[in-house]
Input
Amino acid sequence: MNIATKRQLERRAFLRGAGTVLSLPFLEAMVPAFATRAQAAVGQPPRFLAMCATLGFHTPFLFPQETGADYTLTPYLEPLKDLKGDFSVISGLQHMEQNGANGHTSEMTWLTSAKHPGLAGFKNTISIDQLIAEQIGAQTRFPSLILGTGSDSLSWSASGVPLPAESSPSKAFQQLFADGTPAEIAAQVRGLKRGRSILDTVTGQAKKLHGELGKRDQEKLDEYFSAVRDLEGRLVQNEAWAQKPKPKIDAKPPTDIQSRTDAIGKMKLMQDLIVLALQTDSTRTVTLRLSGMNAVPEIEGVKNDWHNLSHHGQDPAKIEELKVIEKAEFTAFADFLTKLKTASLLESTAVIFGSNLGNASAHNTANIPLVLAGGGFKHGRHIAIDKEKHVFSNLFVSLAQRMGVEADKFGFSTGVLDINQA
Amino acid sequence: MNHRFLAALPLVFCACAASAALPAIQPFLDQHCMDCHDGEMKKGGLDLSALSTDGADAAAMKKWVRVFDRVAAGEMPPAKKERPKAEDMRVFMAALGGDLSLKDAAQKGTVLRRLNRREYQNTINDLLGVKVNIIDSLPEDGRAHGFDNIGEALSISGIQMQRYMEAAELALNAALSQETRPESTLQSATLESDRNKDAIGKHWLKRGDGSIVVFNNGGFPSTVIPNLRAKQAGTYKLRVKGYGYQIEEPVVFALITGSFNFRNADNVTHSFHELPVGQSSTVEIMLHLDQGKGIWISPQGLNGPDGHSPIKDGPDKYPGEGMAFQEVTLEGPLVTEWPPRGQTLLLGEAKLRELPPDKPWMRGKAGYKPVFTAESADPTADSRQLLPAFITAAFRRPATAADAEPYLKLFNAEFAESQDFLASMRTAAIAVLCSPEFLFLKEPAGKLNDLQLASRLSYFITRSAPDAELLAAKLMQPEVLRAQTERLLKAATLERLVADFTDGWLNLREIEFTTPDKQLYPEYDELLLDSMLRETRAFITELIQNNLGVANIVRSDFAMLNSRLAQHYGIPGVSGLNLQKIKLPPDSHRGGVLTQASVLKVSANGTNTSPVVRGVFVMDRILGIEPPPPPPGIPGVEPDIRGATTLRELLDKHRDSETCNSCHRVIDPPGFALESYDVIGGWRERFRSIDQGEQVKLTVQGRKVRYRLGPPVDAAGELNTGAKFTDMSGFQELLLAGQDRVARCMIEKLLTFATGRAPGFSDRPAIERLVTQSKTKGHGMRNLIHAVVQSEIFRSK
Output
């Protein structure tokens, strides 16, 4: 029995169970909320993954001229040609009012949509992945996986505090899959208990302090309380999971890439790790920040500093060289989607891949490059969104709903962008 | 129709409620402002009818302050509109100013300030007498107003809390992992080793004096010194003996430390040095090394004539430049304090003892981590004596019984379970170091007391916790405060203040954010980067140490230079890599912060310069005027470096629009003046281009340059006051004429950094008094620091 047949059967079983007679074509038009239930029935929980390349993509090489299903592949979509039915390329989206402290501050708000990053009065808000993790995080060993090829991440806590990324695939692998010896597990549990005793102690101290403070100081201390609570919850959860064996897998632990400039190698290691994490249902929410660099990346045909190339100033030679880098990123992305698909994870995983910069050379944040893949959506199209009708966070609303979050608004959303209807 | 009206009512109501707080200014707004700045026109993105007047809304308050400032400056209403009557103006300014002042005063005060990661690292290292790197394992700190020590921008997350626990344990273990005083050893090495035997005679030359001459920069074969590693973490004295070979100038090398295992991922460039030509000499360098770290001496900028190589010619016949390596010695660790403070603080009389490993041979293995214990005759009594003292040291104030109680309880619980004195003390100590009383600087409303001033002053000037003398000082007395400030300014920690302050003030922490384009700027190298950063720090240090006036920030008749910078700036007669105070020749185009390569690099993007970006830099960081961001939906101007158009020409189009021009005529001119300096701070009369323009006959580092010379630079401009300048020098004259503004800016930046909050509208009169007071003394930099410390603003929350 091949995978497709198995799923088909289970779908039928679901339809019988639902006591409804439906013709199959209707299934293709299922709305996201319905899709969630359908996926639950085939035994695959919904998953969410966001990846942002913070130095941007040269969009003339990404966005096709034509909209709809009948588009000509652009240079960056070329590597994805065999997956055409599994993704949509989306143009016209942006967050509002992203003019911030400098040209790159919009990377703080890619998953939050907060306005004016870094300017007076700016306070970031929760990122969409963390909102989802709050809802479903307790169901897996890791509420979410926050990864990056550098130390910064795309994720922000409920109090708008930046969450650091894990940038070592081997450490992440260790946490995900390596079971300790009984003695190590016992030591780990002891360590977790000790951590909780420490947190209990400092909470008591903080409570005393709270009474001595004015209102604005109290608000700051509240951040401390929520940090402690958050960690406490995590330690409790970890303690429960520590007793359960970790998933067994065949894959070998990755070796971290030591070279600072092997950006694509690092991206691939992280993506392989994501496949394993999703396959073993260790988490259902992942973010991956792909940092560019102020150095020459190790990619054949690239001789210049990457950040520098992104500020190409219309120099055709630089744009060509930038294309080599960005095409390598899209090729790695295509490999990754293929792996997800082979592992039967793509249907259940909504993947967004793009950048916070629409035109990196001018630090422009409008019309951001974006690909949405998997997640059971109606794909295969270039969807040109009317910027008067939708902003980027409208898409987050439907993606969160798909994950079971009951929300009709996120950040500065102005509505809900249902990609199947767009 | 009716329905719509009703539906709209609540909205109208809200808008009224928000701005009704200022009835006194409404008539003026209606008469002079609302034509352009109402909900419909929103000129420049400003809609006064919807602008919140809630004092807690920082973004809205900032806009109101801007309204106040622009009306006060006569910029608004614009010239073509009817001028408001003087009396109306007065009433308006008084009403709006009074309201803004009240609202700011109600909000202001440093928000409970967490130690940033640099302060945390300094504090914990100073507390325990260790030197661990913690910064890299803590998340980056939030910033406001350029600085990363501003209370409201420093946040904390669950993950960060976990990192704090780990960091505390790491630092404690560093203090608790050595039972006997480490012995200093002297290791000696040359490049001659088994690993290098193939290189010698092929790539490298062995000379009669026993030295090995290396002709390659970095790369292959590696010049990592064989078999030379730090046996333990600590301070070491490194001596490098050698000389320059077949070279005209002294030979320069980089000292790089690292593990040198796989692919050099943890390499850190420590410093640059040079050895004289032909004559054996020794350079002595003090440095901190972590256990197992090695030394790489990497020659820089060695060239040879085209068509020659050591392999082709044979190293003995190769005519190119080389560096002769004689001997490298490493002496250490040099211990000045034993046992480390942390050990004494936590263990008192109880002595640390290493537990023998399960199998004795394990001790010899690489990566073996010894396990320790400490025996106490009376653990409970010891903990009751030691923990309160540790808490006192950590909390920067005497610990009360109530403070100590929860930690003693934690110790008891841990000890009851483990019967391990050391482990239980460590757990209690971690809790102390994760407590809000350690992590945050607590300052109650109103005037700060002696202890609170001690912490504020200490974190300002030494970037760490106050020492015993400071904690005991009666700092509320102005003369004591002054004497202590003077004492701290004389300490070696001044370099921390200068580095951290300039990182924020001049954004120097971003100096490596972009790498200059290799084709356009082939002369750029690591030594230049290192030198430019040190130049600005040395310059500010010089201003502080000799109390030189802020006018020097705009223009100085001296510069802090080494040979590399002097070459870059075209100033003759400077040798050596150490920075020296050099009197500048006339027409050097140098002198002042704005002509320093670090500032010019950090305000450019590696490929091109933008007068807008640099203009904003000068406004914000030298003149203390924060230009508003472009209104929503305005894209940036896209640079074009193909050589046909300059950014200035593109901007001119932009500035034809009245809306754009209202800000850009203020922002851009300082940027125009700086157009004479390229992205690495070199002087230029024409823009370099990649594509079009005149070919250049010039070689850099033995290679012909590939860039071309494009259009000429136009550095002329007109300030919004109408004052004109034709070049940087003219612009500097104009700045000097208004140097009070620069002094005010410095005072504001120092206050921001020192207090952890930006001064607000209600602080303006106090700052004005500081400016007047400092003017009588020529705005000396050291005086400015004292004035800031003595101010009401510094001495209050």
About this structure: The first helix of chain A runs from residue 3 to 17. Residues 1-41 of chain A have pLDDT under 50 and may be disordered.
